[in-house]
Amino acid sequence: MGIRKFIVAVPVLLALAACGTGTPAANPADNAGKASGHAHGSPPPPATPLRDGERFQEVGLARPYTPAPPEGGTDEYRCFLIDPKLTDTTFLTGSEFLPQNAEIVHHGIFYQIPASGVEQAKSVDAKADGDGWQCFGGSGLEDNQSNYIGVWAPGHAETLIGDRTGYRLEPGSQIVLQVHYNLLATNGKTGPTDQSSIRLRLAPGTADVTPLFGSLLPAPIELPCTPEESGPLCDRETAIADLAKRTSSDARDEVDGLNELCNGGKEPVAGNTQHCDHQIPEPALLYAVMPHMHLLGRSISVELNPGTPNARMLLNQPAYNFDDQSEQVLPEPVRLNPGDTVRVTCTHDASLRSQLPQLKTLKPRYVVWGDGTSDEMCLAILTVTPRGLTEPGAERGLPALRRSPRHGQLVEPVDEPVVLERDPVELGGQLECRDPPEQARVGDL
Asked: Beta-carbon neighbour count of residue 307 at 10 Å?
């Protein structure tokens, strides 16, 4: 399903248990050089020491995988089912993606699959040739069969927010690792292999954990060819048809859905800079913001209540660096109230296409939101705690929403409420988590 029917809801989506602090942004002139390849620097830094009760477990691909993009494409999204062999309830309190071949790995996303959904995931896996299955945009599984539990992009490292946060993993649950492979360097030809892994930071299910959730806030891209460029793909409709051929038939739905969400379905206006306003539906405390664009990205900002006396800049990167997509942890949590507006604004630069070695050989094209590295995205990931978890007497039921398998986004709400699995009580600024009632499950979120 495309973004057309998505609603962006702050309290419920991907629970980011680990957020990295950022480094100063590079100037735009430096970005073109840094984004010229996918060798994302040195190996990841040493892990933060384990805290009381925690342990590390490394899981990953069983054997090297050889990416094979669709005909005419240079990108493949591949999902792999991984069994951490959990026999007891466990909390995932942190995670570090370890890309084995950083030259071809664009990003990694981790999904939790409840025990009840494992057989369906195995069935999808069995029907695909080779290890894993192709999964542009999401896990490739049915709605409500996968929940975001982590993400990696260049520059993202494991750091921890607060004393203890994490996801509840039930016995028998498994992990789907989605890896975006980019073969621009080989013009889409197979050859390079990868055997990436994830280092899980695990704590027993009896641990007291503050739940963090996240929300994907996208904005459209309507980037025309430069005046110096020409060709059939400079036509928007032709470019979208080519995108769907290279990635997924859902690509057109996503482009149309973003235009509906952010532009009211009006005729798109081409330009380097685009934005989208998102309404906050539930009270929340915001802890961190993570930016994401591709190689043509120049700048990104996230602003709370723009154009009002209470306007506040949450993130401002005037010189976006593809190789530093670290989460920016706010000095203090920011309150988000129902009805607040969060504006995501991105500027892209089509002239970078002639400057970056990886893009120089590509035909000029009109660029829209797309899964390929040569396409573009404009995305802010907000890491929050619903304020009902930190304020005594607040409403504990949250609207239940169905997940779309595309990008972990949320679609239409359903009728039944969600009861949070742990009963938090504010105690001197700390959260005391009591034993959950039997009917409450993190999987419901």
From this structure: 8
Span 280-313, pLDDT tens digits: 999 998 988 989 999 999 999 999 999 999 999 9
Q: What is the largest CA-CA distance in the chain?
A: 64
The sign of the dihedral angle between the CA atoms of 34, 40, 42, 48 is: positive
Beta strands (DSSP E) in 252-378 are: 273-279, 284-292, 297-304, 312-317, 328-336, 341-348, 367-368
The string of DSSP letters for 210-259 reads B--EEEEEE---EEPPPTT--SGGGSHHHHHHHHHHHS-TTHHHHHHHHH
Dist. CA 182–CA 76, nearest whole Å: 7
The contacts of residue 442 (CB under 8 Å, 6+ apart) are 147, 167, 168, 170, 211, 421
pLDDT digits (tens, 9 = 90+) for 390-431: 443 332 222 222 233 333 333 333 333 323 333 322 222 222
- pTM of the full structure: 0.71
Cα dihedral across residues 406, 410, 416, 418: positive or negative: positive
